[in-house]
Amino acid sequence: MKKKYVYAPAIVLGMHDAIVSLSGLIAGLTLALADKKTIILSAIIASVAAGLSMGASCYLAEKTDNNPYAIRAGATTSAAYMGTCVFLILPFFWFTNNYYALAFSLLMAVA
Predict the structure, then answer these.
(1) H-state helical runs in the chain
(2) What is the pTM for the complete model shown?
(3) Is residue 8 helix, strand or coil?
(4) CA-CA 20 to 30 A from 14: which of 2, 24, 44, 47?
(5) How many CB atoms lie within 10 A of CB 90?
């Protein structure tokens, strides 16, 4: 019987790293910069770069363990990372005040 790949570890890895790293980046950018467009653009660039990096590192880790589903694991981790980042960046499109957007983003990260 063929063993199916379990996606939960890859999803948790991507979401956890996105919450930790992007929340810190967004908080730092919000407190250092006043321009909302710069905050959003920087967060999007960091999200894509880090998401691809996380996917590649998960792929390599799974490939080292001879997992036949290594590509799926990497893609799942990358998608979970970028999907979580979308939820963390969205409040900056909704609120005009950067500090309210930051507070809501951090509340979403905790939830």
Answers:
(1) 8-32, 36-64, 70-89, 91-94, 98-110
(2) 0.87
(3) helix
(4) 2
(5) 15
- Position 35: which residue type? D
Q: Which of 29, 68, 62, 67 is nearest to 46 (CA)?
A: 29
Tokens of 68: 């036949």
Q: How far apart are CA 85 and CA 43, in angstroms?
A: 8
Q: What is the pLDDT of residue 2?
A: 54
Helix (H, G, I), strand (E, B) or coil at 68: coil
Structure tokens at 85: 């980042």
The span from the CA of 17 to the CA of 71, in Å, is 19
Reported confidence tier of residue 34, pLDDT bands at 50, 70, 90: confident
What is the percentage of the chain residues whose pLDDT exceeds 90? 67
